[in-house]
Every structure is written in structure tokens, then in C-alpha cells.
Amino acid sequence: MTILEAxxxxxxxxxxxxxxxxxxxxxxxxxxxLGISKARLxxxxxxxxxxxHQEQFNTLIVRRSSFEPVAYxxxxxxxxxxxxxxxxxxxxxxxxxxxxxxxxxTQFAAAEDPEKSLFVDIGTGSGAIAISLAxxxxxxxxxxxxxxxxxxxxxxxxxxxxxxxLIDFRQGSLLDPIVELFETMRSTSTKPISSVxxxxxxxxCANLPYLTDNQMETxxxxxRKFEPHEALKAGPDGLEAYWQLFKQFKKHRDMLPRHVAVxxxxxxSQTTRAVExxxxxxxxxxxxxxxxxxxxxxxxxxxx
Length: 304
Hints:
Blueprint: H1 3-17, H2 22-34, H3 38-42, H4 51-65, H5 70-74, E1 76-79, E2 82-85, H6 98-110, E3 117-122, H7 128-137, E4 141-145, H8 148-160, E5 167-171, H9 176-187, H10 193-196, E6 201-206, H11 213-217, H12 221-226, H13 240-252, E7 259-265, H14 271-281, E8 288-291, E9 297-303
Helix pairs in contact: 1-2, 1-4, 2-4, 6-7, 13-14
């Protein structure tokens, strides 16, 4: 069987299974298996596949025909110009989330003293947001996640991209690890927290679960069957995690730096309700709606 014949077979099998991009997926999987670029794959269509490669490719296509995500099959996903290791313990990074990183970088550049800014990534998952911010700015980041398995993936990604010394990974729910960090500093010093901690600006990114129960039922099988539900679903209205987060911000606001910018990712349908929940805790805040790469309302920026 040649490379072209293998791709044609895979395309037909994936198409019959209902996979949306059968040939593209087949090309990505075979390129990964052979360890060559897609360009090289195309220029060697008539080359025969070795028997063990045929068997391995067959296994991958069978798994993909059951809708197992390509990113999990090859163990990586591109995000903000870098490849990140992923597995079923972490959500696969989406292009829409790159807008969250871009906005955070804009906030960093606009800060009065950028070098006195601290990034926080809540619910870091694979670490894609935290690592992108650290790599782009060479500034410190605190990244949190409730899952130790997710943190293990994120730490490996940080090492792979050479920013492990810039990121403090902490396990815990939502803002709890950040609160513990500031409480520890405050309890070990008689000075005001502002003089103990060298940061004036806190730039918080949170891509938390925001799908409703109904949305979960209508998801593509790739997502519904394989990606971690705890990273996707957040109650009847999809905003439960953000309600909890902003309640924590309200409760602990006094111990945080003077300037706090919070960036959250939402479903476009949640814009009004998300703004209302933020203003419920911070009436003086004027949240700004930002669009993603497709022009959809995806990011909300709040100064609290």
C-alpha cells in the first residue's frame, strides 16, 4: 500500500463514520506517524508504507472513526504559535482562546509599570495560556488548577517551552491558591501587603467551564465523548464557575494589588448575564466585551 492509497482508504473510512474533515485528519495522522511534514507527505505519494506503519495507521484511523480527537491521538495541539502536549486529562486548546492571551498581553503593555505586573491563569489545564504569557513577556505567572493530572501536563509543557522558572503552578479551586499565597505573605510580615508583594498589577485570565447542561447534550461527539466534562460544563446557565470566582474576588479584594484586570472567556450567548454577574459583585465595574478571531463576543475584560 502506498501513501496515497493509505490516505484514500482512511478518507473513505472516516467519511463513512461521519468525521467532518476526513482527508485532513488522515493527512495529519499519517504525517505524525511517519515523522514527516505534510509537504513531504504530498511529495512522496507513491512511496510504499512499511507493514508496521500500515498497522499503526489502521489503529489510529479506527480510533479516529470513533471520534477520538486528533489532538489526543498525536498528543499535541498548536496554540499561539507553539505546540502543547495534551491528553484526556486536559481540554484541547481552542483558537478562540488565543484572543484571551492577546487581550492579556495588551493589558500588560498598557500597565504603568509592566515589570510590576503578575499574570494569574485560573484553571490552567494544559498550561497553554500561562505558558504563552510567560514566553511572550518573560514575566511571572501563577497558574492554578484543581486537577493534579492537569498540572502535571502543564508543568511538562512549561519545561518544554523553557519557562518553568517563570511559572508557579499551584493546585486548588478557582482563586483559593492565590488567596493562600497572599495570606501567607501577609501573615509573615508586619508591613502592608502592598509593600510586601512587589506587584502593582494583577492580570487574571480565566477560561473556566461555561457550557450549559443543554449545550453538553448537543456537543460534537469528539468533545462530548472524550474531553473532560469538568472543564466544560458549569450548571444550568453555564456560569456557575464564574459566579463562584467573582464572589471570591469580592470577598478577598482588599488583599490583592490596587489594579486588578480580570479576563474571562464565555459563550457568545452569555454576554449579558456574564456582565450582570460581574456588576452584581462590583457595581462600579464597566466590563468590556471583546471579540474572538471569528468576530464573536468571547472575552469580557473587567477592572475590579
